[in-house]
Amino acid sequence: MSIEPYEVYAIRYATIARRSSENFIGGDPHESGARMDYFVWLVRNGARSFVVDTGFNEQAAHRRKRDFLRPPTEGLAMLGVDAAQVSEVILTHMHYDHVGNFDLFPNARFHLQDREMSFATGRYMCCGPFAHAYEVDEVVGMVRRVYAGRVEFHDGDAELAPGLSLHHIGGHTLGLQAVRVWTRVGWLVLASDASHYYANMEEARPFPIVADVTAMVDGWRRLKALASAPRHVVPGHDPLVMQRYRAPDASMEGTVVRLDAEPAP
């Protein structure tokens, strides 16, 4: 393929201990589960760059009792990226851990699915289990950016640039989208919350925060079909990501790993 491959990085900024029942429908509530790590992602080549999701801040971490490690923008800075200069941000969905800090990207255009904005501002937000993962001030803030002309909506799949495309998956939320990227190892898919953990998609164990379980299950097949190989689907919250991929250099250990590489078994 003549497209210049993209580099892809996962930037870890928070973590929390979990129980199995918090990670899988039907999980044992007495059994400890895998920790949940929180990431934002950077996709770039010589021609363009995209930030995927914007994370949450220390105040949100305190409010929701997460272990905050560093601002996501600090991790971006390690890679030479100034959030204030970023021009393109992909929001996989509008849960608090994916859309918080949007205000730190004052020059960005935000890419979002039509169905996600409809879901986050519609009738289902009257129901606590759906609304819990959203922050009303962040939703309102994104609506303000719509009126400022800074949100680009997509209805389903869309190519943003040669070698980079968005794919509506749904399931976890009604408007969740994954990101497909051409890299030096082939097609890589950033699943985001279409699969929080490797085990969700590999063992067919749905995550319990879900708008449509059947769409979530169908989404796992779609993710694998979009990637060059199933091992190139990167889940949204699995601590194993930090073990299967390497840091760009020693100074970034524990914070940044490079995903456009073959993962360790």
CATH fold-level assignment: Metallo-beta-lactamase, Chain A
Given helix and strand content, the structural type is: alpha/beta
Q: Work out the number of β strands.
A: 13
Distinct helical segment count: 10
Order of helices and strands: EHEEHEHEHEHHHEEEEEHHEHE
The main pleated sheet reads as:
8 strands, mixed
The first-level CATH class is given as Alpha Beta
Using only C-alpha atoms, the radius of gyration works out to 17 Å
Poorly predicted regions: none
Count the domains.
1
Strand content is 15-25%
Percent range for helical residues? 25-40%
Choose one word for the global shape. Answer: globular
Mean pLDDT figure:
96
List the helices and strands and how they pair.
Blueprint (H helix, E strand, L loop, with lengths): L6 E10 L3 H4 L12 E9 L4 E4 L5 H7 L2 E2 L3 H7 L9 E3 L5 H4 L9 E5 H8 L6 H4 L4 H12 L3 E4 L3 E4 L2 E5 L8 E7 L2 E7 L5 H5 L10 H14 L6 E3 L4 H5 L11 E3 L7
Parallel strand pairs: 3-5, 5-6, 6-7, 11-12
Antiparallel strand pairs: 1-2, 1-4, 1-13, 2-3, 8-9, 9-10, 10-11
Written description of the protein model:
This protein is α/β, with parallel strands linked by helices and 265 residues long. It has one domain (7-258): Ribonuclease Z/Hydroxyacylglutathione hydrolase-like (Metallo-beta-lactamase, Chain A, 4-Layer Sandwich), CATH 3.60.15. 26% of the residues lie in helices and 25% in strands. The protein has helices at residues 20-23, 58-64, 72-78, 96-99, 114-121, 128-131, 136-147, 198-202, 213-226, 240-244, and strands at 7-16, 36-44, 49-52, 67-68, 88-90, 109-113, 151-154, 158-161, 164-168, 177-183, 186-192, 233-235, 256-258. The strands form 2 sheets. Strands 1, 2, 3, 4, 5, 6, 7 and 13 form an 8-stranded mixed beta sheet that branches. A 5-stranded mixed beta sheet has the order 8-9-10-11-12, with helices on one face.
